[in-house]
Amino acid sequence: MEINIYNNYQAEIHFDFEKIVKDVSNYFNENTEISLILVNNEEIRNLNRDYRNIDRETDVLSFVDEDGEYLGDIFINIERVYSQAKEYNHSVEREFAFLLVHGILHLKGYDHHTNEEEIEMFAKQEEILNELNYRRENNEV
User: Fold this and answer.
1) FRET pair for 26, CA 20 to 30 Å: which of 84, 93, 102, 128?
2) Which has the minimum average pLDDT: 12-16, 28-32, 113-117?
3) CA distance 44 to 13
4) Taking a C-beta distance cutoff of 8 angstroms, is the pair 33, 71 a contact?
5) In 17-139, where does DSSP find H-type helix?
């Protein structure tokens, strides 16, 4: 999987997100392509409002492209990466990897609208993250 990174975040990012992207890309050893756009609270709030009619920040948004080998776009809110890592008491690397895998699974057709879908999607996320060694720390929920 080829992941093209566009860093629209206006401040320095203090972790090696490019390594995480490479790890995840290698895991999904497919002939596909996605765009990963790194943003802040304001930009993701605008996207969430404009495309989902939800006027608030979120952590990750995925937009599927129905044409061929290009799967779509994933927007990750770097401000949320930092705050959620602190909230869940794990590393920013784990949080970023979680959001990236979550976004990719959405592009691949997974969802979590029902309890059954959520169980399936989150189990797949944990399987991938554990295999890539981005494990949960401190038994957080």
Assistant:
1) 84
2) 28-32
3) 17
4) yes
5) 17-27, 41-52, 78-87, 92-107, 115-131
Is 84 within the bounds of a domain?
Answer: yes
Asked whether residue 28 is domain-assigned, the answer is yes
- State the Rg of the chain over Cα: 14
Say which CATH number the domain at 123 has.
3.40.390.30
- Reported as a pLDDT band with limits 50, 70 and 90, residue 68 is confident
> Is 91 inside a domain boundary?
yes
Token reading at 118 = 């959520």
Buried b (16+ CB within 10 A) or exposed e, 14-41: ebebeebbebbbeebeeebebbbbbbbe
Given a contact cutoff of 8 angstroms between Cβ atoms, the answer to whether 38 and 70 are in contact is no
pLDDT of residue 141: 37
Count of CA atoms in the C-beta half-sphere (13 A) of 15: 15
| Start-to-end CA span in the chain (Å) | 30
